[in-house]
Amino acid sequence: MFIRVSFLLIGMSLCSGIQGDDNLQSMLVGTVMRKIKSRTWKKQRYFKLQEDCMTIWYKSKKAGNTHSTFSVGDVEAIREGHQSEVLLSIADEFPADRCFTLVFRGRRGNLDLVAESAEEAQSWIKGMKKLIENLENMGEREKLDQWIGDWFKKADKNNDGRMNFKEVQDLLKMMNVDMNEHHAHRLFTMADKSQSGSLEDDEFVLFYKMLTQREDVLRVFQVYTADGQKLSQSDLEDFLREEQLEGGDIQKHAKQLIERYEPSDTAKVLNAMTFDGFLMYLGSAEGSIFNPQRRGVFQDMGQPLSHYFISSSHNTYLMEDQLRGQSSVEGYIRALNRGCRCVEVDCWDGANGEPIVYHGHTLTSKILFKDVVTAVGNYAFKVSEYPVILSIENHCSVEQQRVMAQHLNHILGDKLLKSTLDGKAPIGLPSPEDLKGKILVKAKKIGGLEETFNGMVEDSLTGEVSDEDEAAEIDENNLHRESVRRRLKSKQRLSKELSDCVVYCKSVHFSSFKHSRIHSKFYEVVSFTESKARKHLREAGESKFVHHNSRQLTRVYPTGFRTDSSNFNPQEMWNAGCQIVALNFQTAGDGMDLNDGLFSQNGRCGYVLKPDFMKEAEKRFDPETPQQRDHYQPIILTIQVISGQQLPKVNIKEGSIVDPLVRVEIHGVPMDQAKQETRYIENNGFNPVWYDTLRFTIHTPELAMVRFVVEDYDKTSKNDFVGQYTLPLSCMQQGYRHIHLLSKDGTSIPPSSLFVHIRFTELE
Hints:
- Residues 25-133 form the PH domain.
- The chain is 31% helix and 24% strand.
- It is an alpha+beta fold.
- The chain is globular.
- Residues 1-12 and 474-489 have low confidence and may be disordered.
């Protein structure tokens, strides 16, 4: 390994400038603050930054020795003032300048805090921001040093800065290593240079280095090194050309890699790369499986909206299930911060003339429509500048619809798209580029866009207000009471004010693909539950669905029977060209892994361009028969799963060690759906080695997603999930690559990774 510095000094990079930083000094001393969970739950806690500048420690005054901690790395953002529902609820009690919110990564709840004074609040806000910035600027080597230091602290039970053999044995179990006592003692003795019977910091680094010897990478290095010690620039160029299959200016790239990743100044002077540098490169973003050139926005953003897959959320207001779950504006903030570009707002009449948002006829809690609109206005364009669609499911009276329209206009102002872009009757959908910074409303509309321009719109319209009431679907299956049936059949009027907020996304009923082809307008959007969409796929054929979606937007959402907020597999709907495939963002699992994977490209902007054969109406692509399309060229994907590194422990039982296996899943057109597994490795989650080769034939590479899943094998029950990584096939780099694994929540779990070799070959 490439550790050079005592890891007891690791914190120095994070605490750099601490002597002159009053905020960090104050955090190290500690502060009493109130932790707020609700209007009635407000408890004092003592918060303190640990010496490593990586961990926040806190405890109750009454709780004796029990305390809690969290890592600075777990915090995604700090919000100042009353910027959460909880803090807004106590705004009359505590001023905004004493309040702040720590937002955690993944699906973990926020931490709402009130300091004793505005000055103390600012100390923590500025100090936390500084620590997060320092952490984000850490290099790969410092991150690894940090990780090792964390393990040392966990294992050094008596806090004497040394580790005896018993502590080392306990540490190995914690790190997922099953090693016989004799071998462990041999490594311990070799590392104990001072012969003191315990390992100090540098000795522990040496021990870790021996423990993590990467024989798999060394084998590759040895093939290309001429002298066995280093790669000359020419050796590195050969590796990049022959193994990584890189094009372009390889000489220039090899020079850059040496400059960027080689830790030895001596080697740099020789324009060479040592094994440590080679390992650093392969562990970096450039050595990862995801092609860095596809990370930023690289696609043409000037095509009609119907030509893109759009990251979309269902029941965005829910944080949990659909029967009793909490409704929260936090759901909107989290979805938008993940790049979601279409959010759902389920509106009902509320008290005092104010419309509310919740899952109708259930026990889910209620939030104000105006609070949702405010959150969308504030967060719509933080991570992507491309348009956001508000999909409104409207159950309100005409009076409260007028209030909804007022809130949309007043709160969103110029961000709300109120008319066509050039003020003329359009002939097609605008592009994401045209609509940058705009919020579009998808809902019912009185008449069409054409009538808007010739002034033939009535004041109100009698008709169904909402297509998407999930109770309607349940009702069809005779699972609802007669009263609900009557409610659904009753007509509601639509207010002109709300209708006028709808421009390019008019919600309409769907009759048939034939009817749509002849009568429908480009700005009309149909919505289907997943079961209705499947029915149309079966009965009308997939090519008709693809054709429909080449010129119009379609929204597909989970069936109402999914009361647990589970998700369907979105791939089936993407195969048919459906753009707005709405998922429960609050629920982790395969569906969200695929969604996160598809939208991890193109700057995570929430829009991904569909393949050409799905955009052109005359092409008639059928996912069932991909071999019939123009330019059909299947490929063979060969994946050699070589090894794993530092896989997380999934079973907290002491002494339990992972038996890992890797499953590779292909999601795409029906002919491409496949999965294969490696064998499992017994009792080694630390550095398992497979060298197992998996082969797949891919008929439509443009639509294929590849999901790598690591599981803990169990012969008596279901395997436990360890980690996963999902990406589009089109974003994969060939050659020797690391896959940096993600948790069930989609957050990174460094330094857990897989080492693989990837090759595409055309099928003759």
